[in-house]
Design brief:
4 domains; globular; alpha+beta; two-stranded antiparallel ribbon; 495 residues; Arc Repressor Mutant, subunit A
């Protein structure tokens, strides 16, 4: 029987973590100082990246104009659109390099990131930064970060109690070390209530926190990234042991995939964080640079992302000339330059995405807390993560990542972005009042008390009731403890 050749076309859909997404997930929770350190390191490792200095001569601009004159026009770029899906592929696959990375593709799709001028930023000059003495801060612990998210959410008192117990039983890696049965015995609480509270905590940032196993930790992250029901999720849920033992051929056979396809799924898994709580383990103090500057204009308050201290990156044109059509550079040289160019472009895109996300969150906070910015703590409104998330149409965990360890320079001082998020209590007129405002009222009441006859929590309840605020005595006790104010008995002894 003669052999016959058949051509089969196979259509497949793949979900992968693009370089841009990987960079964005990594950069979003970074402080300005951490981001600056990362960018400086990238400039060391990537020769195509350079910093644009303010006092550089205009000769480089002339060089850019000369480069642009030699670029292929947009009509030829449009003919190569079909090649752009290969941009994220590794340059080690030399096949098709010339067609994929020709000058037309680069200029047409990434022109805003090229040239001698630094990329445009969201920031503008709005005045002087706060003094150095106002920029010292202690690193937030994992428990503090999770507790803040819990207080910035809307849950029943029972769920908050169970959630607090769960947070208290996390190790430094963010893993839950207590079983469901042990948690039930702490209340006592029902298994249903514990499970509900655990699901809530597992939705907090960092993604994967409060997982009981490595497998559960990775599955939580995949779910958040949109990989539910994919082969990647199946590998983690059913064949994680084969991944850990690096038995890729066996795994590929079980899944009915090629080695290359299997490696792509493993690549996604390798970018997940098995210890999401580890970055909160440090307790050292560090100087901070406000990530957002808030100023008052004729139209109201305006938030501007602060890029002071961040290197203004550009892509060096002399390297781009090596990959232009007609260049006499070797294939190895072109492959290296194209790989670094790919990395540089994704880095710049990720920076812009990070800054834009911070800008959205900051704009929403300024809009919702304009009264506080104008008149101070007395007009600080109740605000939870869901309010901002709904306003900017993002997930709550994204908002949490943005505000964590970030600061705003406001007319009311340099404040952590978390400061603007707090629960609220309704007064007798139906108005919602911030818990921070109530704490300030409690502090002022205690400051005015007779030192010889300190006010009890019950009397503070009465005093607030006269202002239309109806609170339970235990709530007053909780707020007083948050303010680190002793009980009335302890205050009397101190006097």
């Amino acid at each position: 029987m003669p052999l016959q050749q058949k051509l089969q076309v196979k259509l497949s859909h793949k979900l992968i973590l693009t370089p841009s997404l990987q960079q964005a997930l990594k950069m979003l929770p970074m402080t300005t100082i951490e981001l600056a350190d990362m960018l400086n390191q990238e400039m060391v490792e990537n020769p195509l990246l350079d910093e644009k200095l303010d006092d550089e001569s205009s000769s480089e601009t002339d060089t850019q104009q000369a480069d642009n004159e030699t670029a292929v026009d947009e009509s030829s770029a449009a003919d190569d659109v079909q090649q752009t899906d290969k941009i994220g592929e590794s340059s080690s696959e030399s096949t098709g390099i010339e067609n994929t990375w020709d000058e037309a593709d680069i200029e047409y799709f990434f022109g805003e990131y090229l040239g001698d001028e630094a990329r445009p930023t969201l920031s503008r000059d709005i005045g002087t930064l706060p003094p150095l003495e106002n920029t010292l801060s202690a690193t937030t612990s994992l428990a503090d970060h999770l507790t803040w998210q819990l207080s910035s959410s809307q849950h029943t008192e029972l769920i908050e109690e169970i959630s607090a117990a769960i947070i208290g039983n996390l190790n430094e890696d963010g893993q839950l070390v207590a079983s469901t049965e042990e948690l039930c015995a702490m209340g006592p609480w029902t298994e249903t209530d514990v499970t509900k509270a655990l699901e809530i905590v597992q939705q907090f940032d960092p993604i994967g926190v409060a997982a009981r196993t490595l497998q559960e930790c990775l599955l939580l992250q995949l779910e958040r990234l949109g990989f539910t029901g994919t082969i990647t999720e199946k590998i983690v849920s059913e064949h994680l042991d084969l991944v850990q033992k690096r038995r890729v051929p066996e795994l590929a056979k079980l899944l009915g995939l090629s080695l290359d396809e299997t490696k792509q799924h493993i690549e996604v898994i390798s970018h997940l964080d098995p210890k999401p709580g580890a970055r909160y383990s440090s307790s050292v103090s560090e100087y901070v640079i406000p990530d957002v500057l808030v100023v008052k204009t004729e139209d109201g308050f305006v938030a501007v992302v602060n890029d002071e201290g961040l290197p203004k990156l550009k892509i060096r044109p002399e390297y781009r000339r090596l990959i232009k059509k007609g260049s006499k550079a070797s294939l190895e040289t072109k492959s290296y330059v194209k790989e670094k160019l790919n990395s540089a472009i994704w880095l710049l895109k990720s920076i812009d995405k990070r800054q834009a996300t911070i800008q959205k969150v900051a704009d929403s906070i300024v809009k919702l807390q304009a009264g506080f910015l104008e008149n101070g703590i007395g007009e600080l409104k109740p605000l939870v993560l869901r309010n901002v998330a709904n306003d900017i149409e993002m997930h709550e965990s994204t908002v949490s990542r943005v505000v964590n360890n970030k600061y705003m320079h406001t007319p009311q001082g340099v404040l952590e972005m978390k400061y603007f998020f707090n629960s609220g209590i309704s007064n007798s007129h139906g108005e919602s009042i911030s818990s921070v405002t109530i704490k300030e009222k409690i502090r002022k009441i205690i400051e005015k008390e007779n030192p010889q006859a300190p006010l009890s929590d019950a009397k503070i309840v009465t005093a607030l009731g006269e202002e239309g605020l109806v609170l339970a005595r235990r709530t007053i006790a909780k707020y007083r403890e948050d303010l680190r104010i002793p009980t009335s008995t302890q205050r009397r002894v101190a006097y």
